[in-house]
Amino acid sequence: MAIKTIKSIKKAQKIHIRSQRFVRDSVFKILFSEKSNVERLYTEISGEKPENRTILTLTLNEKSLSTNLRNDLGFIVRDGQESTLFLVEAQSTWCPNMALRMNEYLIATYRQYLAGNDQKQKITGQNIITLPPPVFYIISTCGKKNQNEMHFSDMFSHQSKSNFNFTVFILEDENSSTISGQYIGFCRIYKKLAAAQKNGVECFEKVFEECKKKGYLVSFLNEHKNELEGYMMEEIEDRMAFEKFMQRSNKKAVEEAKPGIIAEAKPGIIAEAKPGIIAEAKPGIIEEAKPGIFNDAKKELFECIMLYKKGVIEKSEAAKRLGYSLSQIDMMLN
Domain locations in the chain? Predict the structure, then answer.
């Protein structure tokens, strides 16, 4: 397989993996942009009510321009003169190195905290800096690991006398009575049902009905129905475009590996090919393709433009696939 083809596939795979977390990430961000839900989460993980306490949200799924790090949720709880920093990370795939990542998020968050502090404390100053002690949590929406916590010291190459250590607590149970448990339940239902859907409205309806049965985020889903339908449709379109791209890339790889192999294909083989693959076949074998397989011109146009916008293919490649000039591509984008 040509190096250029391999690079295109790897780039497309990275974009696809990110796009398939879009709905779950969006729900998390919208859910915890509401202060009442942050207060509810604090009560659930600390066992204390936020009465007489001030909760200040520091981060909410936002990437730092200076560090390129993004923590899903960070908030400070102030109780009189005492403050505690809570860092919460939502995980859709299991990562045993989360303790190290949490340490990176902590440093980035402390820098943000100091930058916004009225006292303008400097690390290189003569006075000791006061920082809120951290507490770390993971909301795990992947399959259950039956692991309640992980420790930073577990990553050390050998047992050490070093006292540098902290614990990351893991929430992984579905529970209709907790905000984290409802989010976990929603994510697992969505992951299970969305893969077979081809329409955002139908996808939302199926997910909503299942969540309604179990009492997961029912009022939240009702309130944000329209925007979630749009998010789901966008994720579905990304998935379908990726599948089409992989089909074409696999066919191209075969042609590059064995020149002329298509010309020698036995009669009838091409007729069984999946839709979208035949578009690049050599002249002379199209006659055996299944009827109606080429009635997808609009879809092909949409997919090429989407892949170009996401940076998977160059503008010249999109123009070549569609049979358009570069100026025509520019006109479609404007």
Answer: 3-238, 293-334
